Amino acid sequence: IPVFILAGLLVHCVFLVSIFEIYFSSPLVHGMTPQQTPLPPPAKRLVLFVADGLRADALYELNSNGTPQAPYLRGILENNGSWGISHTRVPTESRPGHVALIAGFYEDVSAVAKGWKENPVEFDSVFNETKYTWSWGSPDILPMFAKGATGDHVYTFCYTAESEDFGAQDAAKLDTWVFDHVKSFFNYSRSNQTLLSALNEDKVVLFLHLLGIDTNGHAHRPNSREYKENIKKVDEGVQEIASMIENFYGNDGKTAFILTSDHGMTDWGSHGAGHPSETLTPLIVWGAGVNYPQKVTSQFFEDNFLKEWKLEHLKRLDVNQADIAPLMASLIGVPFPLNSVGTLPLEYLNNSAHFKAESIFTNAVQILEQFKVKMSQKKETTLSLLFTPFKPLSDSEQINFLKQTRLYIQQQKYDEAVSLCKALINLALEGLSYYHTYDRLFLGLSIAMGFVGWTTYVILVIIKTHTNLTKTVQTNNKESTVLFYSFAFVGIAIAFFLLIQTCPWTYYIYCLLPVPVWYAVMRELPVIQDLATNLLSLHVYQSIGFLLVCTLGIEILVFSFFYRSTLTVGLLVFAGWPVVTQLWIQAKTTTSIWTFLCVLLAIFPLMPVVGREPSIPLVIATGLLTLLISCFSLAFLCKSKNKYRNNEDLKVHFCQVSCYFSVILN
């Protein structure tokens, strides 16, 4: 038994780790050449405001009296700039959101093991490509971009971690701190010639991370007075900073501004999942090189936001969150981040058709570089006979795309060049995904075989030790030896196959695991034969009914992942089970309690997943009540003289109650 338990723990640890290897491996590659638009950029500097936790509807919607929530920003999108919705991706957390905004790719999911704090793999960003970047805000966000930068040109100014109090009465002070320190910074630069010279360089970014809205959202909910007041303070602060910077540079018209958010927030103050309130964030862009508001008579979106926000007459330009990084790079003329998968949103640019064509061409080449590196890496670790390339983007197709696009630009056929570049970007992104998931089916099948084998073995062991369905059979040593050497040969063949492909060491674990597991299953072949004999002796209708019930139960569990209410159906079936099987005649009290508890439990899947207000006393009371019922049941079993009572079962019940008690204490 101890060996069996240790083997089970080991196998399940492998299954758990395999999830990260198959689905959570890093998408990043290195070795690409930086790509930069060859034409002069429209802006010398860019100011990026990120209002952490700001929902799109919270900024764009009007108050009940018809006034805007953020008057200054509303005026910008109506008179001076372009606007839209930035669509984020799960997980809607601060670090993944900022990585998408500034580095242009959707978070390296292996960062989940670091709590979304550290950089498990170094990556390039817009900040890294600038001449200077100054940033102010949270110590949870700013350092990761300074840490990943080459050279000493990304400067951070953070408040203390203790200041991020989610229960603070006025979390807007976090944003006030940022605005005040930016003002002090510019005032100080007037007396510091070195700093003043640096500020007047090209390719400069000023990043203001505003955490107050997110903090107030967590503490008071997005519909609270505190959350809305914080939006007003951010609006006023953005107005002051924008005016101050314009004056500082003598209104030279060379400053671009972007305001957006890393993620939204649910009505109950949480984020991380994929609800629209979490994934829809505002995007307002204005200043140098940015299009003015575009008046339209009609535009179609599946949602009704335009009507709700009274913005039907202004063109809404939606983007993916990763598209903002190439937009920033294009505006100030820095190389696109090497790992960016964003597509440059050309409709935001107010520049010549030539500039737009060159910019999107640079964007396409930059993503194609990643594709080529990814393909090369996969080709090196796969046998040439087994390697299946991404056919839509073969070497010849790549050359044709690049030559034709360059020809269109030379012939001033800019619209055709843009269309071709967008097609190339889409194919390159598909190819990146293809090579990133190249081994997923192979590894998935290996893990599935191991899982099915282990499940089969556990069932056979239970049947063998806890039922009388099988009889003891003398083991044939000769057959056991042949079986052992057969599986050993299979294992050696798999290991050799992985070795010649220079696969990672983890692949050996995932691919070799099914070998000993299925060897153990095949050693129980007599048990399988006895079980099959017993099943075949049953009536056909009984067998079919049993299989149908099992299938229905499994389908209900699967559907419950998508529709929680299906659990109610299953629990109601359980409630009626004693009546159908006539068990209620033998033990009316027990079956009545069973039916009542099943019906009571069936109510919960129909209730909301998360409430707006936490109820800690209710949670504690529920835990204590469950513990009380468990203790009562255990005491009742100990005192009963039922001939079917098993002392081993009592030990298991006692261990379960002890574990539950420790959970409540924690």
From TrEMBL:
The gene is Pign. GO terms for biological process: GPI anchor biosynthetic process. The keyword Endoplasmic reticulum applies. It is a multi-pass membrane protein. Keywords: Endoplasmic reticulum, Glycoprotein, GPI-anchor biosynthesis, Membrane, Transferase, Transmembrane, Transmembrane helix. The lineage of its organism: Eukaryota, Metazoa, Chordata, Craniata, Vertebrata. It comes from Nyctiprogne leucopyga. This is GPI ethanolamine phosphate transferase 1. It is found in: Endoplasmic reticulum membrane. GO terms for cellular component: endoplasmic reticulum membrane.
